[in-house]
Amino acid sequence: MGVQNAVADLPAMKSDPKFIFFTDFDGTITLQDSNDFMTDNIGYGRDKRRQGNLDCLADRISFRDSFRDMMDSVTKPYDQCIQYLVDNIKLDPGFAEFFQWSLQNNIPVVVLSSGMEPVIQALLHKLVGPDASKMQVIGNNVGARQGKNINEEGGWQIVFKHPESGFGHDKSIELRKYSSLPEDVRPTMFYAGDGVSDLSAARETDLLFAKKGHDLISYCAREDVPFTVFEDWTNILSKCREIVEEKTTVKEAAKEGYEAYKRGDAGVKVNTTK
């Protein structure tokens, strides 16, 4: 009964899948990170934002505090922010094909994001279309500042899903609900991400796809977290097909990332002092 209850509480398990694909949203499904895009263009700018990313990687500041600082610098009314993003953010060119393949093969896609659910839902509706409703989205939310409406200047603020966590949204909490299932029920778990918001998820799945040239690769190489590199979702689709069709294994795929990193093929500077 305990296992049945646990499975019943997990929407992605309703179809009894053998595989589930968890993914970051910003900069992973999309070409641009919507939060970075707002901060760089209508917030305090790229230089300060990028320094915050580097400080997170170096453990000088929590992701939660850095991200809140970023969002606090964006004062445009919330409805205008959403429209600004809908007008500018583009989908990774390979994601639509991957998503249709996942639907055909009973591989649920679950978005785990440190961004804000209303923004993600609006962008997915625009970029993916009606099928976007078949994706579960779990992220942070948005709320009005005291005495204000979110749709006025300086009226909104981010509301963290896990405010007690240094991640703001600790993605590992959701992932462990699945990884802790009994072996005969537990699906194989994939995860795709690109940056500091994905650090809490990096160790929690069977195969981590880390985006070429981004901070997640530097973290994985430093912390000995197995991963494989992707440039876009055509790479992810190809690798997942190989695994589902049993042409390769998750274990073999998970060795590839560090080898690519050592060869200098992962798009980040190799740390020779490691």
Task: Write the topology of this structure.
Layout: H1 2-8, E1 19-23, H2 34-42, H3 46-57, H4 63-72, H5 78-88, H6 95-104, E2 109-116, H7 117-127, E3 136-144, E4 156-159, H8 171-179, E5 188-193, E6 207-211, H9 215-223, E7 228-230, H10 233-244, H11 250-263
Helix pairs in contact: 3-4, 6-10
Account of the 3D structure:
- With 274 residues, the protein is α/β, with parallel strands linked by helices.
- It has one domain: Rossmann fold (3-Layer(aba) Sandwich).
- 42% of the residues lie in helices and 15% in strands.
- It contains eleven helices and seven strands.
- It has helices spanning 2-8, 34-42, 46-57, 63-72, 78-88, 95-104, 117-127, 171-179, 215-223, 233-244, 250-263; strands at residues 19-23, 109-116, 136-144, 156-159, 188-193, 207-211, 228-230.
- A seven-stranded mixed sheet has the order 4-3-2-1-5-6-7, sandwiched between helices.
- Helix 7 (117-127) links the parallel strand 2 (109-116) and strand 3 (136-144).
- It is globular, with a radius of gyration of 18 Å.
- Keywords: Hydrolase.
- It holds the Pfam family HAD.
- GO terms for molecular function: phosphatase activity.
